[in-house]
Hints:
This protein is α/β, with parallel strands linked by helices and 179 residues long. The chain has one domain (4-178): P-loop containing nucleotide triphosphate hydrolases (Rossmann fold), CATH 3.40.50.300. Helices cover 47% and strands 17% of the residues. It is built from eight helices and five strands; from the N terminus they run αβαβαααβαβαβα. The chain has helices spanning 4-15, 31-45, 65-77, 85-91, 99-112, 130-142, 161-166, 175-178, and strands at 20-24, 51-57, 116-122, 147-153, 170-174. The protein has a five-stranded parallel sheet with strand order 2-3-4-1-5, with helices on both faces. α6 (130-142) links the parallel β3 and β4. α1 (4-15) packs across α2, α3 packs antiparallel against α4 and α3 packs parallel to α5. The chain is globular, with a radius of gyration of 16 Å.
Amino acid sequence: MSRPRLIKRLDEGLRLGHRVMVISAPAGFGKTTLVTEWLHGLKICGAKRATSVTWLSLDEGDNDPVRFLTYLTAALQQVDGNVGRATQSLLGGPQLPPVESLMTLLINDVAATATALVLVLDDYHLIRIPPIHDALASLLEHQPPHMHLCLVTRKDPPLPLSRLRVRGQMTEIRAEDLR
């Protein structure tokens, strides 16, 4: 089922430079289908400037910071192979540096790319550990303007969403919108 009204809202959020798109509803509401349709439309119609998309489907095992950051880095490298090289080498070391430091490296690498980027984190509700939420909060705080985060989740994550909402930096699609 096509949802042009919701696709238009996501397009508008991207056009306005919103940092994050939150698609939040219980199972079976078509969250992933909506995002897939939206991203497919971006690729066909093309945005004003080229927009690359990378998608990370999360599961219970991704509650390990090393695993999460390894997969996040790999997803970002799908857009630009130079992103995350230093992060990867540190993730393979004997001792994990602070997650905030690793996120700073990733954010700086993304900022150095010229490519507009949409990063989709699907099933974010499966992430439960604070270090990963803290890493994402850091990303949202320091996110380069050409990067957009799309969170697909069954419940709101413990991130500073209210701050983003007040600043007009977030597009939200909820269960009532998806009905």
